[in-house]
Amino acid sequence: MLKIYGIKNCDSVAKAVKFLKAHKIPYEFIDFRETPVDQQTIDVWLESSDIKTLFNTRGTTYRTLKLKEMNLSDDEKRQWLAKENMLIKRPVITVEKHVIIGYNESQYQKLLLQH
Q1: pTM of the model
Q2: Could you give the strand order of the β-sheet that contains 98-101, starting from the edge strand earlier in sequence?
């Protein structure tokens, strides 16, 4: 079953959900605020992606926590993602062993419309 991780009021998550509904793709929505993701889940995502893609440096949380000034290592960023899920770039879609980070319609078409 396809899973989409994010928060309800995120524009990118809304676009992804709209895409899934338009193509009648069943999914399970996991809201970071209600069900935080743990370090193990983040580490699994990082097996298919990289920290630069998953770590959201453009969001309010990143600025509020002043993380840019901390000059974090990749491992520290990895730990911050588990501590503060709002730092995860949204949405994260998992299907089988694939992970798609962010709203990317061409990737969605390529990967999700094959099934």
Answers
A1: 0.93
A2: 27-31, 2-6, 92-95, 98-101
CA-CA distance, 87 to 66, in Å (whole number)?
12
Please pick, among 10, 16, 42, 67, the residue that the annotation labels catalytic.
10
- CA distances to 11, 21, 84, 95 from 27, rounded to whole Å, are 18, 9, 24, 9
Nearest to 4 by CA among 87, 88, 80, 60: 88
The CATH number that applies at residue 55 is 3.40.30.10
Query: Mind listing the pLDDT tens digit for each residue in 52-94?
Result: 999 999 999 999 999 999 999 999 999 999 999 999 999 999 9
State CA 94 to chain mean position distance: 9
10 has catalytic annotation: yes
- Owning domain of residue 100: 2-112
Amino acid at 97: K
